[in-house]
Amino acid sequence: MSHKIAVIAGDGIGTEVMPEGLRVLEAAAERFNIALSFEHFDFASCDYYLEHGQMLPDDWFDILSKFDAIYYGAVGWPDKVPDHISLWGSILQFRRAFDQYINLRPCRLIPGIKSPLADREPGDIDFYVVRENTEGEYSSVGGRMFEGTEREVVIQDTVMTRTGIDRVLKYAFELAAKRPRRKLTSATKSNGISITMPYWDERVKAMATNYPDVTVDQYHIDILTANFVMHPDWFDVVVASNLFGDILSDLGPACTGTIGVAPSANINPEGRFPSMFEPVHGSAPDIAGKGIANPIGQIWSGAMMLEHLGFEDAGKAIVEAIENVLKEGPEQAPLTPDLKGKGDTQALGKAIAEALSAG
Ligand code: NAD
Ligand code: IPM
Ligand code: MN
To answer: Which stretches make up the Isopropylmalate dehydrogenase-like domain (predicted)?
Structure first.
């Protein structure tokens, strides 16, 4: 039986890193004898919007529901389509409609990459951000009133549900319980956001009683961002609301050298709907078209996809191939400029695919 993957490259560097992600997935499929079939879609991109006046075809839900997973590049091109239209019309829509309530974002300093934080070595930074992915600050509840007048009012509510919080906390606690350090950090802001965030803290406390072996701490998001920089070694599993998780999952990878390597898995743990795998980064208009985007975030996301589909060995082998190429350093390996190298997107993708096939 072939595993069906919907491929959406999207915009900007999404179209450049996706072929490298697929190159490595094909190498993994061959080495591990996995049957994967890819179907490419041009929707959920700004060019599709310019042609059709909408980001998605009317039957997108039925089309994508039939796949085992969605492999996404990046979306957004603010000069063509306002970001809130392109993003709410694509990735944010998928996360909600397919109930991908977990956004799992590993963050690890890999040998061969220099952290911008002085004296940080591999091993010092190795944690997961578990981001709530379907509610919270990303809500469509609100409105704009008295537009254009001096009394103009704009409101956007945060929505937190007990079910929504508890399910992401449960996932994060389970993950922490499986890791050697068994530590969970909760991102909060209950000193200032006085209704939703105290509720979040309350649910963390309640969930913690089920996991006596997991050490729990919490920080307000302001000092937590500072601690990511000052003490990244404190963290193991960090659980956060939608917005806080978004911020932490760019900051964490930045501390590991570049956001270009960071992967993410948008997971519907029950498997009722397809899960979606995409790099953390966006379409990077500033470097798009130059062929220098780092493809590792896309490739590593492919590894997470294979693990999710049950091919743990293949996923691990891809990560090992990434590590083997990176540890050669920018003089030997064709690393991209964000890794201080002189290589390009394709050369780095090829090097990783070759390392995987050789392994
Ligand atoms: P971005 O992640 O696209 O870029 C931020 C910076 O990081 C840029 O300087 C860029 O060159 C660099 N960068 C990003 N990925 C890189 C890579 N693989 N290799 C090397 N350098 C890389 O964030 P942005 O500039 O805020 O957003 C650009 C567009 O992408 C916007 O439309 C935004 O809404 C969208 N976006 C989409 C996603 C997504 O599809 N999941 C995520 C973030 C932003
Ligand atoms: C991400 C992105 C998206 C988010 C944007 C593009 C809507 O930043 O996947 O991290 O905020 O979730
Ligand atoms: Mn983000």
So the answer is: 4-352
Ligand 2 atom nearest to CA at 133: 12
Does the beta carbon of 341 lie inside 6 Å of ligand 1? no
The H or E element that residue 144 is part of is strand 142-145
Residues of the chain falling short of pLDDT 50: none
**Which residue has its alpha carbon closest to ligand 2 atom 1?**
280
Nearest to 95 by CA among 350, 316, 265, 230: 265
Would the pTM count as exceeding 0.95? yes
210 membership: H or E segment, kind and range: none
Q: What is the ipTM of this complex?
A: 0.99
Ligand nearest to the backbone CA of 92? 2
Query: Count of alpha carbons within 13 Å of 194, Cβ hemisphere only?
Result: 1
Fold of 115-256: Isopropylmalate Dehydrogenase (3.40.718)
Q: Whose CA is nearest to atom 1 of ligand 1?
A: 282
CA distance 122 to 108: 8
Residue 1 has what pLDDT? 82
Q: What are the sequence ranges of the domains in the chain?
A: 1-100+262-359, 115-256
Q: For 333, how many CA atoms within 13 A lie in the half-sphere containing its CB?
A: 27
Q: Which fold has domain 1-100+262-359?
A: Isopropylmalate Dehydrogenase (3.40.718)
